[in-house]
Amino acid sequence: MGPSNGGSSSLLRSIQRGNVFMLKRLIVIFAALAMVASACGSDDDAASGGQSTATTAAPAATTAAPATTAAPAATTAAPATTAAPAPEEVVTVGDHLGDGSLGTVEVGSGEDIQIRSLNAISGDVAFLGIPNQRGVEMAIADYGSIGGHDVSMGTGLDDLCSADGGQAAAQTIVADESVVGVIGTSCSGAAAAAAPLISEAGMVMISGSNTSPSLTSDLAGTAGSNNYPGYYRTAHNDLYQGAAAAGFAIEVLGVTSAAAIHDGDPYTQGLAQAFADAFEGHGGTITTFTAVNKGDTDMIPVLTEIAAGSPEMLFFPIFQPEGDFIVQQAGDVAGMDGITLMAADGLMVSNFMEIPETVGMYFSGPDLRYGSNRNQRVVGSSPDSFLSLYVMSYGENPSAAFWAHSFDATTLLLDAIEAASYVDDDGALVIDRAGVREYLSNVQGYSGLTGTLSCDEFGDCGSQKITVIGHANSSDVDGSLENVIYEYSPAGGNQVGELMVPLTATWRGVTADSIHIATTTIDFQWLVDNGFSPEGWGDQELVWQTMVDDLNARGGINGRQVVLDAVRPFSAIPGFGISADAVCLEVAGDFETFAVLGGFLGPAEISNICIPGQQNTFLLGGRMDEERLAQVQAPWVMDGTMVNRRMEVFLSLLDQNNLIEGRKFAILGRDDTEETYNTAREGMAALGADVVLELISDQTGGDTEGEDAWWDVQVERVRSSGADTILFAGGDRAALRNLFWAGIEVDKFIMNNETVTSLSSSVTPEMAEGAITLTGLTEQEQYDNPDSQTMCIEPFAAAHPDIVIGMPDTHEDGLEKWWRSIMTHCSQLRLFELVASEAGPNLTHDTIRTAMESIPQASTPVCPYGSLLPGKADFCDAFRLSTYRDDGSDNGVVEAWTEIMDGTP
Fold first, then answer.
1. Domain range holding 86?
2. How far apart are CA 386 and CA 20, in angstroms?
3. CA separation for the pair 37, 51 (Å, rounded)
4. Which of 129, 201, 673, 716 could form a disulfide linkage to 120, CB 3.0–4.6 angstroms apart?
C-alpha cells in the first residue's frame, strides 16, 4: 500500500470552477451516506438492508496459483476482450460469465447485492482507509442498481492495518455467504492474512492501496508468496515503485550509495527490498539494509548504524509515527548531515510533510496527475468533479490518494457482478462467483479515474505509473505534491522537473536553517506619556514574537525558521524620543538581519532610506515615494500604498463620485510632502478642477508651535480665496486645527486617512467632522476578516488567554489597542512570508527582487487586494471613500461611503 495526501490543490481548482455532479447523483450519494450512518450492527453483523443468500456452498480451500513459466519483466495479462460497460437489460440464464464451479449467490426480490469495504478506518493509518471507504461509497452511489437490485456495502469493516485485523475481518465476511466481493484491504499486511480466507470462500477481493509484490507476482511470471486466486488490485506493484525510486536516485540525484529502513511489514519490507535490488541493479551500493520496530521512538541507534556506512541517501518507506522520529532525530546523529532523505507514499501525507525537518525530502508514490482521465462507467465526470463531490459529501479533502483507486476497484467489481449475473425462473438475480473472477481476470484497457487498467494473471490491474516529488515547503504541502520531478512507468523513467536547491547560507542573516529579522514599532508609550496619543497598542514586542512563533510552528518559510533578533521602538517625531536613525543603525547594522519589518512612519519616515540604503538591508514596511526608492540599493516593499498612487486613486474616486465639478478648491501641503502636493496639483489640473488657492507650508511636522504661527497668517488667505473645499496634501493636522480655530467652514477632502484615524492631542474630532478620506477595509472589517481571525487573532489569543484583545466596535478610549497591534504586525509578517516564499529556498536580494515582480494577486489580513509587479513595490490595492464623523468619543468614527474597490494595476 502507499498512502498519500494528493489531489487537494486540484480539489481547490475544481471547487473554484464549480464542478458538481447532476442533482440525481447528489441525491443518490446522500441517500447512501444516510444508509451507512444508520447502520448499527457490529463487525459480525456487517450487512444492512435486504440480505441475499448463497445457494451453493463455497468449495474447499483453494491453493495459491502455481507459478508460471518466467516471462519478461512486465508480464502481459491473459488474452481477453476489452472491458466495457455491461448491458442494462436483465440477462438470461445462458447469457452470463461463469460455470458455477465456485458457487452462486441468489438475490431475491427486494434484496440488496452485498459487497464489503475492508479498510483501515481507525488508528494511525486511518488517513488511508477512510478515503478508501469513501471511494467505495461514491462508486456504489454513482453506479446505481444491477438487475433491479441496489448494491450495499453494509457497515465498513476495519482491517486495522495489521495481519490480525485483516484475518478477523475476513472471518466475519466469509461467514456471510451473501457477500460477493470485498474492496480492500488498505494495508498489504492485512491483505496477506485476509486473502486466503476470501479466496477459499470463492469471493474476490480488489484493493485500491495494497502494493506489496508478495500479493501478486515478481513481474517475471512467478506468483508472490501471498498470492491467491480471486485477489486483484488497482494500486501499483511496489517493484515498479522500487525501480522508480532507484532510478531517480541514480539517474537524477546521481548518488551511488544508499541505505534502506523498513519496519517488517510486508509493504515496508517489500518496497525497501525492491528499492535495494533495483539500486544495486543500476550499479549502486547498499551500505545498510535494516529495520525498526513498530512502536519504536528512539531512532538514534538505527540512525547511528546508517551513518556509519556513510551513504549518500536514506530510503525509508515506513509509516508514522516512526517516520516522524527518524526525521526529527536525524540532526542529532553525527554523520547524518548531507544524507538525502527519501520516503514513499506511506509518509506522503500532510501530517508528516508539515514537520519542518521534512523539507528537502523526496517521496515516491502513485502518479496523482489524473488530468482528463475518466472512469468508463461514469458519464462526463472528471477526477476534479469527484474531488468536488467528495468535499461536498464529507466536508474535507481526501487525506490520501488511493480513494480514486478504490473508486475504480469498486466499479470493476460491480461490472464483474453485472457480467456474471442472470435472472432465474423464480425472478431472483443469480451471481456466479466464478464468473466474477472470470471477468476480472480478463480486464484489458479499462478506463479508470487513475488511468488505463489491465489485469494480469496474478491480479495486478493498476496503471503502474509512479512519480517522485520534491518537498520544498512544509507550509505548502499541496505545492510539494504537485512538484513532480521524476515520472516512471514500466517503459522507463524520465526527469520532468528541477531538483530542489539545497538550503545554504546565502546572504547576511540567512543560514541553512534560519532567517534573521528585526522589527521596528512606533513608541506609543512615549506618545501617550507626552500627550500625542490617547492610548497605546499593547506590548508590541510580545505581539511580534507571538506571530513569529506561530509562523515557525507552521513550518517557517521554505524549511527555515524565522529568528526575531530585535523589536525596537522609535519616535515618530524627529528630535523627540528615540531617534529613528539610531534604531536603523541597530536593527540593520548591529544585528545580522536579512530583513527589517515595520519601517518608520509619520515625520520619521525619511529615515526609512537608512535601512535599504546606507545599511543595504531588505525593508518591508515604512513609507516610500519614487524619490526615496531611487536612493536605495536593497529591496524595499511597502505593505501599504505609495502616497503618490494614493493621491491619484483618491482624485479618481472623487471624480467618479461627482465631487470635483462645481467646487472651488484650495490645495494645502507641506514641503516635506512636496511630491504628494505636486501630484495633487497635477491631478486636479488634469480633471479640470477649479483651484483658487495653492499653499505649501515650510514648517517641520510635529513642531506644533511653529506650524500654528505659520497658519496664523495663512488662514486669512484661505478665507479670502473663496474656496469651499480643501484638498489636504500634507501637514493635515496643523491645517485642520487652525482652520477650525479661525471659524472657516469648508468641505474637507483628506487623502491620508491616518489624519483622522490617529488623531493627536492637538486635533479633536470636531475639527475633522464631515471629512472625506481614502481608506481600505474598516478596522472592524479587518478584524472580522476570516484571515485576520485564523492567522492573527486566534493564535495570539491561544498563546495569551489572559490578555483582553478587544475589538474596534467595542473599544473604550484609554484602553490598549491590542487588536490593532496584532492585525498590523501579523499582516506585515504574512507579506514577508509571501515574498520570501516566492523568492525560493535560498534568499538573496536578487531572488527577493524577482519575487517582488511575480505576485500579480494576493492578500493579507488587512488588505484584501494586493500585488507586487515590475515597477510596483507598494503592495496594497484595496480602496474606498469614507467619511469621518464626530460621534462624541475621543477618536470619532470613520464610516465607509463606497464599496471596497480592487485597484490592482
1. 24-58+75-235+370-462
2. 8
3. 18
4. 129
